[in-house]
Amino acid sequence: MSDASLNGTQSAKPLEGPYEAGFGDYFALLKPRVMSLVVYTALIGLLAAPVSLHWVEAFAAILFIAIGAGASGALNMWWDADIDVVMKRTAKRPIPSGRVQAQEALAVGLALSGFAVVMLWLTTNLLAAALLAFTIFFYAVVYTMWLKRSTPQNIVIGGAAGAFPPMIGWVAATGSVSIEAALMFALIFMWTPPHFWALALFMRSDYDNAEIPMLTVTHGRRVTRNHILGYTIVLAALAVGAAFTSIGGPVYLAVAVICNAIFFRDAVRIWRRDEAASELDNFKVERGFFKFSLLYVVVHFAAIWVETLLPSGFLGGWL
Questions:
Q1: How far apart are CA 37 and CA 21, in angstroms?
Q2: What's this model's pTM, rounded to 2 decimal places?
Q3: pLDDT tens, position by position, 192-227
Q4: CB atoms inside a 10 Å sphere around CB 306
Q5: Sign (positive/negative) of CA torsion 165, 84, 141, 204?
Q6: Cα(95)–Cα(29) distance, integer angstroms
Q7: C-alpha to C-alpha distance for 58 and 44, rounded to whole angstroms
Q8: CA distances in angstroms from 310 to 80, 167, 281, 315, listed in the order given
Q9: Among candidates 217, 260, 224, 268, which has minimal Cα distance to 242?
Q10: Residue 204 neighbours by CB under 8 Å, 6+ apart
Q11: Tens digits of per-residue pLDDT, 48-90?
């Protein structure tokens, strides 16, 4: 999940003189805005499950999933400190700005990872804890340490890390993986590439400077625009089709049709962009698509939750 649009866009100079990190500095290591989307999708996964947890257990499950997500963020910042310092949107993060030392971030990430996994196991079940542990490993090691700097498919494969939270929430409640959990996973997994590629289009200079092989850097803007449109078409088919599964229904269908029509329209606008057009014009289109993509996830998962609250025969439901 991306926090790019929510970070500063100006480079930050390292602090001069001694500085004692405070709570806010360590909290920033956890990527709280990214964590908020993780918490949201995990909560919907838990609430959509056919098994209800006691509110204390549910609160604890979401809390430890959030801590696990934060731990992943800290480990990501530790490893990426060398490239964060040269990217405008990340230069103000705690490590490149000098507010937190890299080894402190590593210690925080490892400690919180172990704590979150063990506590989720004790409060829910072993499978949920194992999925959380795998998610942390996948984001910190598979994506951050390997894929991000080695292949333009980094965000395609690495997007799985952001797709696991609703599955973890579902498993925390039920103790098992199901087709419903897999559908929620697939929805985020297919959404992630166009979401991040739109970011890469209007922040390409950052990835150039950091020598990160994003698709915009290795294959250019035109290829990236083609990929955004292609993935958006597949995503739309998946999202609308999910309305006719056990997590969908009439309300979800209405939401999916409207949101995907807008998303597809904006993807076509990006695809049609003239590379000779002004950078400002391209920036507005790409940033608009990126910002709507955040709302896209929120609305789809809200509709999934609403469907669980409605009587089974609502509007002649087809399931």
A1: 26
A2: 0.88
A3: 999 999 998 888 778 888 889 999 999 998 999 999
A4: 14
A5: positive
A6: 8
A7: 11
A8: 45, 22, 43, 10
A9: 260
A10: 214, 216, 217, 221
A11: 999 989 999 999 999 999 999 999 999 999 999 999 998 888 8
